[in-house]
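Format notes (please read before filing issues)

Several people have asked whether sequences and structure tokens are stored in separate files. They are not. Every record keeps both together, in the order shown below: the sequence lines, then the token lines. Line labels are part of the format and must not be stripped during preprocessing.
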Amino acid sequence: MFRFTLEKTSSRARAGMIETDHGQILTPVFMPVGTLGTVKAMSPHELKESHAQIILGNTYHLYLRPGHELIRSAGGLHKFISWDRPMLTDSGGFQVMSLSSLRKITREGVQFQSHIDGSRHFFTPESVIAIQEALGADIIMSFDECPPFPATREYVERSLNTTLKWAERGKLAFTNSARQALFGIVQGGIYEDLRERSALELMQMDFPGYSIGGLAVGEPKEDMFRITAFLNDILPKDKPRYLMGVGTPSDLLNNIANGVDMFDCVMPTRNARKGSIFTRNGKMIIKAARYKDDFSPIDPLCGCYTCRHFSRAYIRHLISMNEILGMRLTTIHSLYFYQELMQMAREAILDGRYDDFLAEMLPVLDRLI
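Then the structure lines:
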């Protein structure tokens, strides 16, 4: 089952609800990334305590280890990792892009070498769908080629032609629409006419949702915001929009203002493990000397486990000593904050005051405290 209901708009910002076999998702939503079947440093119980509604798995990595057939035999990814809420898997297109020295793209698919042991593999639009059907996520992605930045217009156009053909082939190969929703991925780089063509051709294929790929790959943020604002007027209003791989708290809020519903990024967890913590007051580098004898919580207004029980001084000590607990506590806080930020954004949309909320939050989120 998959159903999207648009509940309210405030300017271009949208609040909605997605229904799946594993529960409801209130949007806008941030999805923690569980590349290898786990959100690093977090247990499923802790993810629920952070109010995570949906998490991601990575098709490329799970295919290589432990293998999609093993996961199928375990009853699917939900049972394998003990997560009973919605899940999304990506297609592996971004990983294929990042392995530029280890892969060869053809019309049929992508031949690549494993970054683990050098073994050779071949992904096609059909095989990527079959892998994701075995994994069993509620939302899955079409196989795409994600062009790098910078790239010439000619390269981006050739890449888009491939992505559109692959989307059509993958949709024809998809057999599990009763339990999974297959999204098309809008590509086209920073070129508005290519983005429009991509969106319109995918809409003719009638996907239940649309991802926006190929952003947050090195382009100026102004270009990212320009493209999401442009696509807001083209993509259907009654289907969810998912901006892949984004981003900082201010990136999320700016793109919500452009009509995006769904986000994912490794940033809050990866940065947290290194001691860079996102808060409602700005970004905190917890190793800074000024926190050495600061016995206040990371954020006195935050309700997460970390802020309820531990001081900045203690967390600084743990991170400085490379203690696992320090990485866990910073991750718990950052993910809780991301979920809280999405809830605040949703409430602002429902109250019809998103523009005021955006103006209030943006000057605060990017400062260093």
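For reference, the curators noted about this record: The CA atoms of residues 182 and 285 lie 39 Å apart. The two ends are 44 Å apart (CA to CA).
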